[in-house]
Amino acid sequence: MIKEQIYNEIKSSNRPSLYADPLGWAVVDFLSVNFAGIVEKNNDNTGIIVVSDYCTQLTMKNLYPGIKKGYISPLKFAGANPGVMAGLPAIIYGLRGASMTLSMSPKFSYKAIYSLVKFLFKNDQVSSIFIILHDKCTEGDYFRGTYLDIKRLLNLDNILVDLMEIESGK
Prior knowledge:
The protein is an alpha/beta fold. It has helices spanning 22-34, 57-68, 74-79, 84-93, 110-122, 156-164; strands at 3-7, 46-52, 99-102, 128-137, 140-149. α1 crosses α4 (84-93). The two termini are 20 Å apart.
C-alpha cells in the first residue's frame, strides 16, 4: 500500500503557541488524507520515519533576516528543527513509537530505512510504523509513503523497493 501525493500549495495550521515548517504540516495532511482510519487508531507503539533532503529549509531561510538584525523568534527557531517533519505528526496523531527525520535524499536512504525499521521492530520500539519520503518535483512537493506493521515486515525489502521506486538489488 504505497500512497503518493503532490502539493503545489501547502497550508499550515500555525498559531501563536505552535509553529512548524510548512513541510511538517504537509506530512500531517498526507497522513490524514492517505492513511485515514489507520493514523487515528491505537498509536501507543506506532512510529514514523520521514526522509527529506529539504526538511525545514524554508523556515531556516526565513530566520536569516532576523538573525542579521539580532533577533530570532524562539518559536520559529524551534520550528526550523528538521525533526519537526516527524515530530509534528507524532504530536498531532499521538504516535508514541520512535519518530525520526532523516535529512537526506530519499533516493539514497534505502539502507538507512531498512536498518532502522529492522532495529525498531526487533527491539520492540514500534509495533507499526509510517515511512514517508519527500522530494521536490516540477509540480511541487512530492510525497510517497507506506504503513508497516509486523505482518508486513517480512516483505520489507519489496515494500521499500516499491516505495523508493528502485530496482531490486539497491
